[in-house]
Amino acid sequence: MERIEGATWKTLPKWFRWCVIGLLVLGILFRFYHLDRKLYWIDETHTSLRVLGYTKTEVVDTLFTGQVITASDLQQFQRLRPDRGWDDTLKALQGNAEHSPLYFLMARQWVNWFGSSIAAMRSLPALISLFILPCLFWLCRELFGTPTVAWLAIALVAIAPLQVLYAQEARPYSLGLVMTLLSSAVLLWARRTKTQVSWLTYGVTIAAGLYTQLLFVLVTIAHGIYVLVLENGRPSKTVRAYGLATALGGLAFAPWLQVLIHNWQQVQTATISLKEHLSPIDLIEQWGLNLSQGLLDQSLDYASLIPVALAGYALYYLCRHTPRDVWLLLLAIAGVGFLGLAIPDLSWGGQRSVRIRYLLPSFVCIQIALAYLFVTQAIWVKTWQQKFWRVVLLMFVTVNVIACSVGSQAIVWWNKQPSRCGYYPLAASIINSSAQPLVVSNGPAVDLVAFSYWLKPDIHLQLVSNSAQFQIATGFDSILLFNSNRRMRKAITNQGYKLVLVEKELGTEDLDMPLWYVRQPGA
Is the whole-model pTM more than 0.85? Predict the structure, then answer.
């Protein structure tokens, strides 16, 4: 431990320094590689709608009229029009108050500078994700007082498949993780220096974090537990300074909190999928799979006990070999971040805790614990254990790099919910290759806007909101029904058409029958 505490960058083994540099370079390259290749899925399409100042209601009213339109008409809601100003973006965001506005406002300015293409929309979170690394380095320096753990931690996070995947998604996750790490580092700095400037800075990070993600409230709870436990629950000067800084940060968030309360019914409707019931057994299985995906990617989900055991031992080792003010913060952030979602799921039903993107702070805390374990066991220790842990470290890094490499080539990866939209590229290829096709649908509006990225601009569609009052347009050689409900299918068969499920081409036996051929009467 003494060598670790006294180590500097120059005194670290040369092989270690070169590995850190190499992993950082790889991590940066992975974040910007093939930004426009992966499927721009439904959540990201929602981001573009809000950033550009459109609402789902506007999409439905404009396009779901039963008139024949083109895929290009759907794409108009993914491009910035001259008549769409900042007030339209704010209005769209207020209608979706479950998402704090900071990232979306940043994205709006980004669009003004670089456009609204897929690559442009994703380049912002990819760029933001780079700030995770210096914030993580600062946090580790405050925790351990040495750069050794900090260097390995940022190297592991740089090539972590989970971090790379969500760095390439046009959502606030990268910014949320930056604020989690930054606020935690500032908290330690403020507690150490005890200056007004440091505590004021902490209050600013709390406000910025809340304006980034509502789930940041779990981080503030973890910070509160950390401070109160270390101060033995007494109203010490540190506790009072923390409470005042947190209160000021919360007060700054009050305007958006008012918007959230005013639109509470819409928020409940928008988040209804989080309340879909999963049994305790299913939840536990998914937690294990999430841990496997979060540390070693999907490719090793069948061996999920390996990352579970590794993460558990790393946290145990951290608690055994570091002071309470070190391990307590990491366990508080990871534990509150997970339990704050898992307890409601177990108590009232839901699947909040299985959304791995909500658990990014918890995974970073585990990666910090792993960095400490590897540093103490694989770098300085001169025993037989060193060779074992060096092999473990090498295997861990190798699997992560391979996972990032494979994922960078994929069009649809596990984080894009393949069961919901993974068939888009294949379905689009069938439609695009059909003779004079017409696509009929009454599916969710934003889903269809996301699907339109894969269609040729001149592909014709007939979108309807009322399946009982429409007639299929004539003059097309191929008619296909896409992503529509049973009521829509019944309405079409009542018109004398025959539906044939497109199954062999798509392999959609386990999906909700997304694509059908519509055969003419008598055909």
Answer: yes
Radius of gyration of the chain (CA): 25
Picking from 60-64, 384-388, 480-484, which range would have the lowest pLDDT averaged per residue? 384-388
Q: Where are the beta strands (DSSP E) in 446-519?
A: 460-464, 478-482, 498-501, 515-519
Of 49, 48, 293, nearest in space to 164 by CA: 293
pLDDT digits (tens, 9 = 90+) for 263-298: 888 888 888 878 888 888 888 888 888 888 888 876
User: What's the distance, CA 494 to chain centroid?
Assistant: 42
Please list, in sequence order, all residues whose beta carbon lies within 8 angstroms of the beta carbon of residue 391, skipping any fewer than 6 positions away.
none
Question: To which H or E segment does residue 439 belong?
Answer: strand 437-441
* 234 Cα distance to chain centroid: 38
Distance CA 461, CA 441 (A): 8
From residue 156, give the alpha-carbon distance in Å to each of 152, 298, 323, 363, 407: 6, 17, 23, 11, 17
459 pLDDT band, cuts 50/70/90, is very high
Helix, strand, or coil (residue 185)? helix
Whole-Å CA distances, 81 to 49, 85, 388, 406: 12, 9, 59, 37
Q: Which of 249, 245, 179 is nearest to 213 (CA)?
A: 179
**Rounded to whole angstroms, how far apart are CA atoms 222 and 152?**
24
Query: Residue 512 above 70 pLDDT?
Result: no
Q: Which two tokens stand for residue 120?
A: 């442009």
